[in-house]
């Protein structure tokens, strides 16, 4: 029997009646997840299936077949403890910690059940290395720049970092609880504020879950407008990151030019949505505002100009030998680390992993229009910067094509209330990587629970891995090359 | 080297003329809202019901301040109210000027609105030409933080006004606080404030920093910067546009004079002529 037969299979952005999701004993649940993982499936989410906080329940797993474009769901019967998946499947490490923190279910044998976000981070016990000439460096929660708070603790031997421990939670605002209390009038605003620089991707994931649950199909035009916004968001952030990396290596002309060009795409989002981060335009059923022809023409001009400028400034930056020598070989992670730990997005593709939701689980307009996936092999800061540069160019070409031929139709259709007893999963490739929203409705059609995974949730451990054996002075550059969200992790 | 020079010539001079000239915001930009309760249909509360943060409030007939009031400190500028209102009683203008010195001044009614006032003479003497700020994000989603970062780019160039973000609170004259102030961050914010040598100021940026924004009422946050530290300037928005932040800071420093928005200027959505007094130094 194939291991997939123990799971309910759906596609990205689809809902399924919860009675179709197999509920099995936790032993069987565990062994079927491990069998799936052995055949190349990725643990996309592992969550608790229970209505209220602090009460034990069963678990629910979402496994992704990235090559086949399918998602597999299975649930376990309620229990208070079970043999941890993490020793056999390291991808589960943070999910299991989160579940334990939320409701006290004990994954027995988990190597380190440290709090994730709810406990004040200064109350957490840190790993400590001991020995001659070993010293510890603690940074944060408040950092030197204009940046969100988090705590980093390095165990060093001289300049060499043996271990970096990242403890977050300072940003925990209760976003998941507010979303689980939905659908109410503030839910969409909360989704847009999970992570402000990824407002479009999170709003899209939120809308896609709602649409799946209610059987609403947005028009092709609405999907096209959403894709325009998502790529503009990607461009603003990728170009901004290139500027920030230029700044960190002390190459200021590129920092100034990329910094300015980032604004072009924030202004493009503002032109369409009235907000520089694209807040307020995505609605269940489509988009609140249409894209009139004259606006489209204006955007095409910006895109055409940017195609030239991004290439020129990028070539200037990557053509500088002193820049390259600063970026190469720093903060290396291998594709094996990415696969073992389930890393997503830019940092995984920079290490040679072929993983992009737009390709693997196409949603919205990406079902009809393809964006080539950009990959490099070296897994270092250079690769993460270069993947951003390449992806920015692909996004510009995509926008040039799409804005020239926007599908006709209405920008929004009515979206009804979610159906009862359903579960839906939505994956969106945000600029950092896979944004995942999962919702389950109860008998009354209201959300029983709502789960959010920002790509940062998966990728923070990647920063820690990239620093191993590196120098502590490489940390700012390395951190910038990941540029992960604290709020997206802390929710 | 030749590449740098070629690019430098192509990139040109990009610094905005603000505040000397209109910031050139697009048609759909949502700035200062205007309320026209005279258009309201009796018994209709569509805008109040649609607002995600309960920023809109309906008042009793006979209230001298009018029938509708909008709290800019809670407003996300999301336009749910304008979409819900069949009569156009709530609209957003392109006026970017939103900052206020007192929390109460953020309440928009159909009457005149009061913009941020400058610091007292002594504080202006100390900070007027050189203001160093330390940013503390206390639950901010990174949108407000990104706009504060954008103030440093070549377009907005905060440095030309003598305002600069510094790395340590001990080097700073004040804090800029974003986010609803999470429980887990409140202690760090308090410590950072105490590390700033007095006299010091605090600027709360964004709906979260002023009221908690979309997270109002959530147990894990305290409802904005004023819950922990005294606030001297409130800059609304989700996030506020960089020129809104700049406008607020310049008003605080007494470098933009006109501090009232009258009906007429709101209609134009433009600047008042005294705004041209501000000269970058």
Could you describe the 3D structure shown?
Chain A is 41% helix and 18% strand. Chain A has helices spanning 26-38, 93-103, 175-180, 187-192, 199-214, 220-248, 252-273, 293-318, 321-327, 335-341, 345-349, 357-360, 381-404, 455-467, 475-482, 486-490; strands spanning 8-10, 14-17, 23-24, 42-49, 58-65, 70-76, 81-83, 106-108, 134-139, 151-157, 160-167, 282-283, 286-287, 422-429, 434-441, 447-453. In chain A, α6 runs antiparallel to α13. The radius of gyration of chain A is 22 Å and the shape is globular. By secondary structure, chain A is α+β, with helices and mostly antiparallel strands. Chain A has 2 domains: 3-108; 175-490, Cytochrome-c3 Hydrogenase, chain B (Orthogonal Bundle). Chain B is an alpha/beta fold and 281 residues long. Chain B has a domain at 121-257: Rossmann fold, CATH 3.40.50. Chain B is 25% helix and 15% strand. Chain B contains 9 helices and 12 strands. Chain B has a 5-stranded parallel β-sheet with strand order 8-7-9-10-11, sandwiched between helices. A 3-stranded antiparallel β-sheet of chain B has the order 2-3-5, with no helix packed on it. In chain B, β9, α6 (183-195) and β10 (201-205) form a beta-alpha-beta unit. The longest helix of chain B has 13 residues, at 183-195. The two termini of chain B are 31 Å apart.
């Amino acid at each position: 029997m194939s291991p997939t037969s123990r799971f309910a299979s759906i596609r990205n952005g689809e809902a399924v009646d919860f009675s179709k999701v197999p509920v099995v004993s936790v032993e069987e649940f565990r062994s079927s997840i491990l069998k799936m993982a052995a055949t190349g499936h990725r643990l996309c989410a592992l969550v608790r299936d229970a209505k209220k906080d602090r009460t034990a329940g069963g678990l629910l797993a979402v496994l992704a077949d990235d090559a086949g474009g399918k998602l597999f769901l299975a649930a376990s019967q309620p229990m208070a403890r079970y043999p941890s998946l993490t020793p056999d499947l390291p991808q589960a490490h943070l999910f299991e910690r989160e579940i334990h923190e939320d409701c006290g279910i004990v994954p027995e044998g988990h190597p380190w059940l440290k709090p994730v976000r709810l406990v004040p981070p200064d109350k957490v016990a840190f790993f400590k290395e001991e020995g001659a000439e070993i010293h510890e460096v603690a940074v944060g929660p408040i950092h030197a720049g204009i940046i969100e708070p988090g705590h980093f603790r390095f165990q060093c031997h001289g300049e060499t970092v043996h271990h970096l421990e990242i403890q977050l939670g300072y940003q925990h605002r209760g976003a998941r609880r507010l979303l689980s209390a939905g659908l109410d009038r503030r839910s969409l605003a909360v989704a847009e504020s999970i992570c402000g620089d990824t407002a479009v991707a999170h709003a899209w994931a939120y809308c896609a879950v709602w649409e799946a649950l209610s059987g609403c199909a947005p028009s092709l035009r609405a999907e096209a407008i959403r894709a325009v916004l998502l790529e503009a968001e990607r461009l603003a952030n990728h170009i901004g990151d290139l500027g920030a990396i230029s700044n960190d290596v002390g190459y200021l002309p590129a920092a100034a030019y990329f910094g300015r060009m980032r604004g072009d795409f924030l202004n493009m989002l503002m032109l369409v949505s009235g907000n520089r981060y694209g807040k307020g335009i995505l609605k269940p059923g489509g988009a609140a505002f249409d894209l009139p022809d004259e606006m489209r023409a204006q955007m095409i001009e910006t895109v055409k100009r940017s195609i030239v400028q991004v290439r020129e400034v990028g070539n200037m930056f990557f053509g500088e030998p002193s820049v390259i020598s600063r970026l190469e070989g720093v903060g290396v992670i291998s594709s094996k680390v990415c696969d073992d730990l389930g890393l997503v997005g830019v940092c995984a593709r920079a290490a040679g992993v072929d993983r992009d939701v737009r390709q693997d689980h196409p949603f919205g307009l990406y079902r009809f229009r393809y964006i080539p996936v950009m990959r490099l092999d070296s897994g270092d800061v250079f690769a993460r910067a270069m993947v951003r540069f390449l992806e920015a160019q692909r996004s510009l070409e995509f926008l040039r094509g799409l804005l020239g031929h926007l599908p006709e139709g209405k920008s929004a259709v009515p979206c009804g209330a979610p159906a009862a007893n359903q579960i839906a999963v939505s994956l969106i490739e945000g600029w950092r990587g896979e944004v995942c929203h999962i919702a389950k409705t109860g008998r009354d059609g209201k959300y029983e629970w709502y789960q959010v995974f920002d790509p940062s949730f998966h990728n923070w451990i990647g920063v820690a891995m990239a620093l191993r054996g590196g120098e502590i002075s490489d940390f700012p550059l390395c951190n910038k090359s990941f540029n992960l969200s604290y709020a997206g992790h802390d929710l | 080297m030749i590449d740098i020079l070629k690019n430098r010539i192509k990139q040109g001079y990009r610094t905005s003329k603000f505040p000397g000239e209109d910031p050139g915001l697009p048609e759909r930009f949502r700035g200062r809202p205007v309320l026209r309760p005279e258009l309201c249909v009796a018994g209709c509360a569509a805008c109040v019901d649609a607002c995600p943060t309960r920023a809109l409030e309906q008042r009793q007939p006979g209230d001298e301040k009018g029938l509708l009031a909008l709290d800019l400190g809670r407003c996300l500028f999301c336009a749910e109210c304008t979409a819900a209102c069949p009569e156009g009683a709530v609209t957003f203008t392109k006026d970017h000027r939103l900052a206020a010195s007192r929390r109460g001044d953020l309440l928009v009614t159909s009457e005149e609105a009061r913009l941020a006032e400058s610091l007292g003479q002594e504080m202006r003497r100390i900070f007027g030409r050189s203001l160093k700020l330390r940013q503390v994000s206390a639950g901010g989603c990174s949108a407000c933080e990104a706009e504060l970062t954008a103030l440093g780019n070549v377009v907005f160039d905060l440095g030309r006004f003598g305002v600069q973000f510094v790395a340590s609170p001990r080097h700073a004259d004040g804090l800029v606080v974003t986010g609803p102030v999470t429980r887990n961050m409140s202690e760090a914010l308090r410590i950072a404030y105490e590390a700033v040598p007095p006299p010091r100021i605090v600027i709360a940026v964004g709906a979260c920093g002023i009221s908690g924004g979309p997270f109002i009422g959530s147990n894990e946050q305290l409802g904005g910067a004023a819950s922990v530290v005294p606030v001297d300037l409130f800059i609304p928005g989700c996030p506020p546009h960089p020129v809104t932040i700049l406008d607020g800071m310049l008003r605080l420093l007494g470098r933009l004079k006109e501090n009232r928005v009258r009906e007429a200027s709101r209609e134009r959505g433009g600047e008042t002529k005294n705004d041209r007094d501000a000269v970058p130094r």
